[in-house]
Design goal:
Chain B: Keywords: Cell cycle, Cell division, Mitosis, Nucleus. The complex is a heterodimer of chains A (about 1000) and B (about 210). Chain A has about 1000 residues and is mostly helical. In chain A, about 75% of the residues lie in helices and about 5% in strands. Chain A has 20 helices and nine strands. Chain A is flat. Chain B has about 210 residues and is of the alpha+beta class. Chain B has a single domain (about 1-205), classed as 2-Layer Sandwich (Cell Cycle, Spindle Assembly Checkpoint Protein, Chain A), CATH 3.30.900. In chain B, a hairpin with a 2-residue loop joins strand 2 (about 40-45) and strand 3. In chain B, helix 2 (about 10-30) packs parallel to helix 5 (about 125-140). Chain B is globular. The chains are: A mainly alpha (about 1000), B alpha+beta (about 210).
Chain lengths: ~1000, ~210
C-alpha cells in the first residue's frame, strides 16, 4: 500500500475560515491516506507520528504549542486530531458558504458532472438540510451555461435533481454525438477544409514553416489548450515582456526556463528536452508542427479551431510533393462544455493552392458575422439573466446581512444587558462583602462577650466549689449527730425486743388457758347430750303411763258387760225356740233340694251350650282384635309407626325383591313371549298363505273331483245307456231276428230316444246340483276357516297389546327399582339461608322478650331507680315550691285584703261563686253587710236586711247616679259621721 | 353436503339451551310468585318476549352454581328431574313444587353418525318458540296458583342418579311431598336431544 499518495502539507495561509476548511480537507485526506496505506491498523503512536510528519512545518509549529494532560496522549492520534480540531475550530461561515454556492456557475469547458460535484461540495457547508436537493437543482438550472438546456429544464415540470442532471447529461451526450456526426460529415465537406485552407492561405505567406511569432500574435487571448493527440500538451500564455529570441526548446518567447512550455517534454525523435520541431536531428525532420486557427470573428463564439501537431513527410517516391498533416480538430461548444476529439484528419495542403479571396468567401464571412452577432445577442440575454440572478443573490445576501445585523444588534443588546447584570452582581458582591465584614465584627464582639462571660462563669464555679467544701464539712457534722441518734434508737430497739419476748411468754400462757377452756367446753357438751337422753327416757315413761290409764278404762267396761249375762241366758231360750222352727224349715228344704237337683241337671245340660257361646264370643273378640290390628296396620301403612312399619318395610322390601325377580322373569317371559308372538305371527302368516294356497288347490281339486264325478256319472250313465242301447239293439236284433220288424222298430227307437233324453236331463240336473252344492260347501268352509283365523289373529293382537302394556309397566317399575334417584341440592340455597335468618331473628326476638320480661318482673323499683329518685326529688321540690307559693299567695292576699280594708274601708269576702260580701270598717255590727253579685254587664247589689235600711243612699247613688263607688263612699261617710256623732254624743 | 349445511345441535349446546331455559324459568317463577321484591328484577329480552331476571347477587350466585353443575349432569345424562320448591320459612312446609323433568332423546341418528357424536337437527328458532310458549304458560300460572301469604323461600332439588358423585358445596336432601297436591302439566319443549317437561304442583287449599 505504499503507492497511496500522502496528502500535501497543510497550508496555514488565508483567513481563519479558510484555514479551518483547509484543515478539514486535510484531515479527511489524511484519514483516507491512513486507511489506504493500511496504517490505521497499526499503533496509534505510529499514526500520530505520521500525522505530525505529514502535516508540514506550519502544522508542526501548532503541534508544539499543544499542552497535554498526560504524556501518553501525545502519541494518541485521536487526541491529536481533537486538539487540531479545537485549534482550527472555527465554524464555517454559512452565509459565505451560501454566497459561494449561489454564485457558482458552470465554467466554460466544465462538464455537468464536474459542475454538480462542485456544487455538492459547496452545499455541504451551507446547512440547507432538507432543502439541499431542491437548491442544488435550482442552482444547476440557473448556473448552467447552455441556454437551450436551461430552457428545457425550465420547461419540464416537477423537476428533480436527478432529472435535471439526467437532462443535462443527455444534452451533453447528444451534443457530442451531433458534433461527431458533424465532424464525420466535415471530413468530406468543404466548410472545415475551407477554414483550414483559409488559414493555410493566411499562413501561406510565411510558408510551410511554422512561425512562432505569428502564432503568438494571432493568439492573444490564449485559452486552455486542447487535448493533445500525442500526449503533448501545452498552453501558450500571454507574456508581458517576451524575450527577443525564441526558446530553443519550445520555440516560443518564454521568460524563464522554468516557465518554458517544453519543460519536462521529450522529443520523440531524439529524446531531448524540446519539442520535436526544434529538434536538431534533421533525419526525421518535422517540417511544420502546430498552427491554431484563430479567426477573429469566430474566436469570441468559440468556433472551430485546429492545430497541427505533426506533419510528417511521406515516404519518398509515392507522393513526391505532397505533405500530410495529422490534424487534431477541436471543437468548442459555446460554453466549453465538452472537449471532443475529432478523428485525425488528413488534409492535403498544397503550396500551389493559395489564391486571392473570392466573393463567396466574403459572403460566407458575412453569414458567419451575422450568426456571431445573433450569438452575441443571446449571450447578452444570458448575461442579463445572470445579472438578474446576481441581483437576486444580492438581495438574498442583503437579507442575510440585515438578518445578521439584527442578530448583531441583538447580541449587542444582550451584551449590554450582561454588562448591567455584571455591574449589578458586582454591586451585590460589594454589599455582601460589607455584610460579611459586619458579620465578622459582630462575631468578634460576641466572641469577646462570651469570653467575659466564660471568665465570670469560671469564677462562679470556683465559688461554688468553695461552697461545696463547706457543705461537705457541715454534712460530716450532721452525720456524726445522726450516728449518735442511731445508737440511741438501737438501744430503744433492744428494749422493745425484750418487751416483745415478755409479751410472747404471756401469749403462750394465754394459749394454754384457752386449751383448758376448750376441754371444759367439750365436757359441757357431753353433759348436755346426756341430759337430752334422760329427757327422752322421761318422755317414754310418760307415754307408758298414759297407755296404762287406757287399760284401766277397758277393764271397767268388761266388768259392766259381765253384769249383763242374765239377760243373755234369756235370749238363749228364745233362740232355742227359733231353732225348732228352723228344723221344720229344714224339712221343707229337702223338697226344695230335690227341685234344685232337677234344676242342676238342667243347668248341666245348658253348660256346654254356654261353653260354646263363650267360645264363640272369644272367637269374635279375637277376630275383632285381628280386625283392629288389620285396620291399624292398614292405617299405619300410610303413616309412619314403630313396629308395624319395620315389619311392613321388611315385607315390602322382600316383596320388592321378589317383584324385581318377578319383573326380570316377567321381562324375560315377555321377551320370549314377544318373540314367540312374532314367530307365531310369522308362522301364522305363512300358514294362512299356505292355507290359502291349499284352499285354492283344494277348490281346484274339488272342482276337478266334481267334474270327474260328473264325468264318471255321465260315463256310467252313458255306459248304462249304451248297455240299454246294446240291450235294445240285442232286443231289436232278436226281434229282427225273430222276424218282427217295421212298426216295432220305430217304436223302439222313439222309446230309446225318450230314454236318452231322460238320461240327459238327469245328467244335467245332477250336474247342476252337484256344482252348486260343492261350491257352497267350499265357500262356507273357507269362510269359517278365515273367520276362525281372524279371531285367532285378533286374540293374538290383543294378547300382544296386553303384553306390551304389561311390559311397559314392568319396565317403568324396573326403572324405578333399578335407578332410584338421589335428591341433591346446593348446600347454601336460599331456603336454608332464609331459614337461618329466621332462626337468628327468632332467637334475637326471644332474647329480647326474655330481657324485657326480666325487666318487667324487676319492675319500676329497680327499672330506673335514678330516674325515680330524680322524679321524687322533683316532686318534693315542686310540692315545697307549691306550698311556698301558697304561703306566699295567702300572705300576699291577706296583705292585699288588709291594705284594701285599710285604704278603702271595706272588707270584701268572697262568699260563693261570683258573690261578694262587703262590710264596712265603721259598721256597728257584723250583721251590717252588703252583698254584690258579678253579672254580665257589671256588678249588682243584692238585697239584704242591711241594704233595706239604706233606702235613701240606694235611691240616690245607685238608681240615680248608677255608681257603686260613690254609693259605697257615701255609705262610708255616713257611717263614719255616725260613729263620730256617737262618740261626740258619748263624749258630750 | 346438505347434511353439513343442516342445523346441528350438539349435546353440550342442547344442555346449554336447557339450562338457559331453567334460568329464565326459575327467575320467572321467583318474580311471578313474589318471592322477592319486584324492584330487584331487571327486564331482559329473550325468546322474543320480555323476561325478568333477578339482580340479587345471592340469587344470581346460587343460580350460576346450580346451572353450571346441572349442565354438566345433563350432558352426562345424570339428571332426571329438577325441582324448584317454594318453602314456607316459618314451618318448612313445601307449598309449591315446580318439576322440570328432563328426558333424553336420540336426536338425528344419521347426522350423529356423520358427525360422530350425538347431535340434533332441530331448528333453533323452533326450539325457542317452544320455550317461549312454556314461558308464557309459566307467566299465566299466577292466575290459578294460590296466593303465598307467608314468608317464603325457594330451593332447587336435583334428582340425580344414585351413582352420581356429590360435588363440593352440594348435599343430599330429603325428597319433598306436598300434602293434598294439585298437578298442572305445562307445555313441553324438546331440543331433539332433551325433552323438558314442566309440571307445577301446589297445595290445594279448600
Amino acid at each position: 500500500m505504499e503507492h497511496a499518495r500522502p496528502p500535501p502539507e497543510l497550508s496555514m495561509d488565508g483567513s481563519p475560515v479558510g484555514r479551518a476548511d483547509a484543515w478539514k480537507k486535510w484531515k479527511t485526506q489524511f484519514q483516507l491516506f491512513i486507511k489506504a496505506a493500511g496504517v490505521h491498523k497499526e499503533d496509534p503512536a505510529v499514526q500520530a507520528s505520521l500525522l505530525i510528519n505529514l502535516i508540514g512545518p506550519d502544522g508542526f509549529d501548532v503541534y508544539q504549542t499543544f499542552t497535554f494532560e498526560e504524556e501518553t496522549e501525545r502519541d494518541d492520534v485521536a487526541v491529536l486530531l481533537k486538539k487540531f480540531d479545537s485549534y482550527f475550530g472555527v465554524k464555517p461561515n454559512i452565509t459565505l458558504a451560501r454566497y459561494n454556492f449561489f454564485t457558482r456557475n458552470q465554467t466554460e469547458g466544465e462538464s455537468i458532472n464536474q459542475y454538480v460535484t462542485a456544487l455538492k461540495i459547496l452545499s455541504k457547508n451551507c446547512g440547507f438540510s432538507s432543502l439541499e436537493e431542491e437548491l442544488l437543482r435550482d442552482r444547476i438550472v440557473c448556473g448552467i451555461r447552455n441556454t437551450v438546456v436551461r430552457d428545457r429544464l425550465l420547461r419540464s415540470d416537477e423537476l428533480t435533481l436527478e432529472k435535471a442532471i439526467k437532462i443535462c447529461q443527455a444534452d451533453e451526450i447528444s451534443m457530442d454525438c451531433s458534433r461527431q456526426l458533424e465532424s464525420d460529415v466535415g471530413r468530406s465537406g468543404r466548410a472545415s477544409i475551407d477554414a483550414v485552407q483559409a488559414r493555410g492561405r493566411d499562413r501561406g505567406a510565411v510558408g510551410r514553416r511554422w512561425n512562432a511569432n505569428s502564432c503568438e500574435s494571432r493568439a492573444p487571448a490564449s485559452r486552455r489548450g486542447g487535448n493533445a493527440a500525442v500526449g503533448r500538451r501545452f498552453e501558450p500564455r500571454p507574456s508581458a515582456s517576451a524575450p527577443a529570441t525564441p526558446c530553443p526548446n519550445c520555440g516560443q518567447f518564454c521568460e524563464l526556463r522554468s516557465q518554458c512550455f517544453a519543460a519536462g517534454v521529450k522529443c520523440y525523435i531524439c529524446r531531448g528536452p524540446h519539442f520535436a520541431r526544434m529538434c536538431s536531428n534533421k533525419s526525421k525532420k518535422v517540417y511544420d508542427v502546430c498552427a491554431e486557427n484563430y479567426d477573429k470573428d469566430s474566436d469570441s463564439d468559440g468556433g472551430e479551431s485546429f492545430f497541427v501537431s505533426i506533419i510528417a513527410k511521406a515516404p519518398q517516391g509515392t507522393y513526391a510533393e505532397d505533405w500530410y498533416e495529422t490534424l487534431r480538430g477541436k471543437r468548442k461548444s459555446s460554453f466549453g462544455l465538452v472537449d471532443l476529439e475529432t478523428p485525425v484528419k488528413r488534409v492535403r495542403t498544397d503550396s500551389e493552392t493559395h489564391t486571392p479571396i473570392s466573393p463567396w468567401e466574403i459572403k460566407q464571412n458575412k453569414i458567419n458575422l451575422i450568426a456571431a452577432k445573433a450569438r452575441i445577442a443571446k449571450l447578452e440575454s444570458i448575461v442579463t439573466r445572470q445579472q438578474s440572478i446576481q441581483k437576486e443573490m444580492q438581495i438574498l445576501f442583503e437579507d442575510d446581512k440585515a438578518h445578521l445585523m439584527e442578530q448583531h444588534k441583538r447580541d449587542e443588546r444582550s451584551v449590554s444587558d450582561m454588562k448591567e447584570r455584571v455591574q449589578f452582581i458586582t454591586r451585590r458582591e460589594q454589599e455582601l462583602k460589607e455584610d460579611y465584614n459586619m458579620a465578622i465584627k459582630e462575631h468578634k464582639e460576641s466572641k469577646l462577650k462570651w469570653e467575659n462571660e466564660r471568665n465570670e462563669l469560671q469564677k462562679q464555679v470556683a465559688e461554688l466549689k468553695d461552697k461545696l467544701l463547706d457543705a461537705n464539712v457541715s454534712s460530716k457534722d450532721q452525720l456524726s449527730e445522726m450516728k449518735k441518734d442511731m445508737d440511741e434508737l438501737l438501744q430503744a430497739l433492744e428494749g422493745a425486743q425484750q418487751e416483745v419476748e415478755i409479751l410472747k411468754k404471756e401469749v403462750a400462757r394465754q394459749t394454754a388457758r384457752a386449751e383448758q377452756c376448750t376441754t371444759l367446753r367439750t365436757q359441757v357438751e357431753k353433759q348436755t347430750l346426756e341430759l337430752q337422753t334422760v329427757t327422752n327416757k322421761l318422755k317414754e315413761i310418760e307415754y307408758e303411763r298414759d297407755s296404762y290409764k287406757d287399760w284401766q278404762q277397758q277393764v271397767k267396761t268388761a266388768q259392766k258387760r259381765l253384769v249383763n249375762m242374765a239377760e243373755l241366758e234369756k235370749e238363749v231360750v228364745r233362740l232355742k225356740a227359733t231353732e225348732r222352727s228352723l228344723r221344720d224349715i229344714a224339712c221343707n228344704k229337702l223338697v226344695l233340694e230335690e227341685q234344685v237337683h232337677l234344676l242342676t241337671t238342667k243347668v248341666e245340660a245348658l253348660q256346654p251350650m254356654q261353653q260354646e257361646l263363650h267360645d264363640a264370643k272369644v272367637k269374635i273378640a279375637t277376630l275383632e282384635s285381628a280386625l283392629e290390628d288389620w285396620k291399624t296396620a292398614a292405617r299405619n301403612h300410610g303413616i309412619e309407626s314403630a313396629r308395624n312399619l319395620t315389619a311392613t318395610l321388611e315385607s315390602a322390601l322382600n316383596s320388592q325383591l321378589t317383584a324385581v325377580a318377578n319383573s326380570s322373569q316377567a321381562g324375560a317371559q315377555l321377551a320370549q313371549l314377544t318373540e314367540e308372538v312374532a314367530t307365531l305371527k310369522f308362522e301364522r302368516d305363512k300358514a294362512t298363505a299356505k292355507l290359502n294356497d291349499l284352499q285354492i288347490v283344494r277348490k281346484n281339486q274339488e272342482s276337478l273331483i266334481h267334474r270327474l264325478q260328473k264325468r264318471l256319472l255321465l260315463v256310467t250313465r252313458e255306459r248304462d245307456s249304451y248297455r240299454q242301447q246294446l240291450d235294445s239293439y240285442e232286443k231289436e236284433l232278436t226281434v229282427t231276428l225273430s222276424g218282427a220288424t217295421g212298426a216295432g222298430n220305430t217304436a223302439l227307437l222313439s222309446a230309446r230316444v225318450e230314454q236318452l233324453e231322460k238320461a240327459l236331463q238327469g245328467y244335467r240336473d245332477v250336474l247342476a246340483n252337484q256344482d252348486q252344492e260343492s261350491q257352497a260347501k267350499a265357500l262356507d268352509s273357507a269362510r269359517a276357516e278365515a273367520s276362525k283365523y281372524r279371531e285367532e289373529a285378533e286374540a293374538a293382537k290383543r294378547e300382544v297389546s296386553k303384553l306390551k302394556t304389561q311390559r311397559d309397566q314392568l319396565e317403568a317399575h324396573l326403572e324405578k327399582l333399578a335407578a332410584p334417584t338421589k335428591v341433591l341440592h346446593l348446600a347454601d340455597n336460599p331456603a336454608a339461608a332464609a331459614q337461618k335468618q329466621m332462626e337468628v331473628d327468632l332467637q334475637s326476638a326471644q332474647e329480647e322478650i326474655k330481657s324485657l320480661k326480666a325487666a318487667l318482673r324487676e319492675g319500676g323499683s329497680r327499672a330506673c331507680p335514678e330516674e325515680l329518685q330524680q322524679l321524687r326529688t322533683k316532686l318534693e321540690n315542686s310540692r315545697i315550691k307549691l306550698q311556698r307559693m301558697k304561703e306566699e299567695f295567702t300572705s300576699s292576699a291577706q296583705e292585699y285584703r288588709d291594705v284594701c280594708y285599710m285604704l278603702l274601708g271595706y272588707k270584701i269576702d268572697r262568699t260563693g261563686h261570683k258573690n261578694y260580701r262587703i262590710s264596712n270598717m265603721y259598721a256597728e255590727s257584723s250583721d251590717e253587710y252588703l252583698t254584690f253579685t258579678l253579672c254580665d254587664d257589671g256588678i249588682e247589689m243584692v238585697h239584704t236586711d242591711y241594704s233595706a235600711s239604706l233606702g235613701e243612699l240606694v235611691e240616690l247613688h245607685l238608681h240615680h247616679h248608677h255608681s257603686i263607688p260613690v254609693f259605697l263612699s257615701a255609705l262610708t261617710m255616713e257611717l263614719f259621721t255616725r260613729t263620730t256623732m256617737q262618740q261626740e254624743i258619748t263624749g258630750s | 353436503m346438505s347434511q353439513q349445511v343442516k342445523n346441528s345441535i350438539t349435546l353440550r349446546g342442547s344442555a346449554q339451551i336447557v339450562c338457559e331455559y331453567l334460568k329464565f324459568a326459575i327467575n320467572s317463577v321467583l318474580f311471578q310468585r313474589g318471592l322477592y321484591p319486584p324492584e330487584t328484577f331487571k327486564a331482559e329480552q329473550q325468546y322474543g318476549i320480555t323476561l325478568l331476571l333477578s339482580e340479587d347477587a345471592q340469587i344470581k350466585n346460587f343460580l350460576t352454581n346450580l346451572l353450571t353443575q346441572s349442565e354438566e349432569w345433563i350432558v352426562n345424562k345424570k339428571v332426571s328431574k329438577l325441582s324448584l320448591i317454594i318453602v314456607n320459612v316459618a314451618n318448612k312446609e313445601v307449598l309449591e313444587c315446580w318439576d322440570f323433568n328432563v328426558q333424553y332423546e336420540d336426536g338425528d341418528a344419521e347426522l350423529s353418525k356423520e358427525m360422530k357424536e350425538t347431535v340434533g337437527s332441530k331448528d333453533l328458532k323452533k326450539i325457542q318458540q317452544e320455550i317461549r310458549d312454556v314461558m308464557l304458560q309459566v307467566a299465566a300460572t299466577i292466575s290459578y296458583l294460590p296466593f303465598l301469604d307467608c314468608r317464603c323461600s325457594f330451593d332447587v332439588l336435583v334428582h340425580a342418579k344414585t351413582n352420581c358423585d356429590i360435588p363440593e358445596k352440594w348435599a343430599e336432601a330429603e325428597p319433598v311431598a306436598i300434602a293434598n297436591a294439585q298437578n298442572v302439566q305445562l307445555k313441553t319443549f324438546s331440543t331433539s336431544l332433551h325433552k323438558m317437561e314442566t309440571v307445577v304442583s301446589y297445595k290445594l287449599v279448600d
